[in-house]
Amino acid sequence: MAVSKFSEIDEYGFKRPPDFDYEYYEKIMTVYYTVLTSRALRWEKFLRKHDILDGGNTLKRFIRKGIPASMRPEVWLKSSSAFVHRQRQPDLYQKLLKCSYDKETADQIRVDLPRTFPENIYFDQYKTSLFNVLITYSLNNKDVGYCQGLNYIAGLLLLVTKNEEHSFWLLKEVVENIVPSYHTKSMYGLITDVEVLAQLVRQRSPEIHKHIKQVGLPWEVILTKWFICIFAEVLPVETVLRIWDCIFAEGFKILFRVSVTLILRNRSEILRTHDMSELLNVFRRAIKGQQVLDTHQFINSIFSVPGRLKRSDIEKLRTQINKTRLKDKVA
């Protein structure tokens, strides 16, 4: 058997799993690297003529096809509202670093530091930075404070941006603007969106929705980590970063596009299951298999497999679900 040209460590410093499919990965990456090289040249040409803040639909199209790694920090900041918010409070992060902080929160964060990407060969150098980003954010947003899952988001942001302040503002963008109320103590937004996703699946595949209900696996078990971590520590890193490219530019609807795609593309496997254990194993395979390893193909699929999916449709479902919950609470 030929030896793969890819090492046991990926380009972001993560150790590949023992069962990693090197043969398949080499096959798809040979094509993908060619695509990335071509895209980088196009990005350079685009940025010579356009400001990211005024990129419009052309920028959206470019982002969907992937942002070159060297350009990600700037594009993430400027394609989201993080850049504008930082411009309004340019000294905020440095001021927060000088503030005294809650000991209990700091202890919670310190417990999670060694648990954050322990298999990553580069991450030791970012542990102090991770603490700084998380503790300053807890000071800035008392309603959230610190919540498990934020360590994975902030950790991956640091690996990409290599900059504490940029990571702080991007974390703030995720928690407050992209998935608000996911990381609060009540997790109100998360609970709502889990039900929204279930309804989106029901609309597109009633048989999947019915089968999952019959098997008895709660949607929360399937979706909570996907949503809380925005797929960090869930999907392959390159795929996560391509998803984040789109999330920072287009917002929360990308989270639903990815989730619906993961479920619909595994329809036949889901329908063959007989109990919760089998169903859980289908989802474990779904987030690690060839479908998600082929980043370019997977990202293309999230814009086709779910069909038409508008922000207004999601907002309408959120409103309906919250009204029903309020009625049930009153009753």
UniProtKB/TrEMBL annotation:
<dbReference type="InterPro" id="IPR035969">
    <property type="entry name" value="Rab-GAP_TBC_sf"/>
</dbReference>
<dbReference type="Pfam" id="PF00566">
    <property type="entry name" value="RabGAP-TBC"/>
</dbReference>
<dbReference type="GO" id="GO:0031267">
    <property type="term" value="F:small GTPase binding"/>
</dbReference>
<dbReference type="InterPro" id="IPR050302">
    <property type="entry name" value="Rab_GAP_TBC_domain"/>
</dbReference>
<dbReference type="GO" id="GO:0005096">
    <property type="term" value="F:GTPase activator activity"/>
</dbReference>
<dbReference type="InterPro" id="IPR000195">
    <property type="entry name" value="Rab-GAP-TBC_dom"/>
</dbReference>
<comment type="function">
    <text>May act as a GTPase-activating protein for Rab family protein(s).</text>
</comment>
<feature type="domain" description="Rab-GAP TBC">
    <location>
        <begin position="66"/>
        <end position="251"/>
    </location>
</feature>
<protein>
    <recommendedName>
        <fullName>Growth hormone-regulated TBC protein 1</fullName>
    </recommendedName>
</protein>
<keyword id="KW-0343">GTPase activation</keyword>
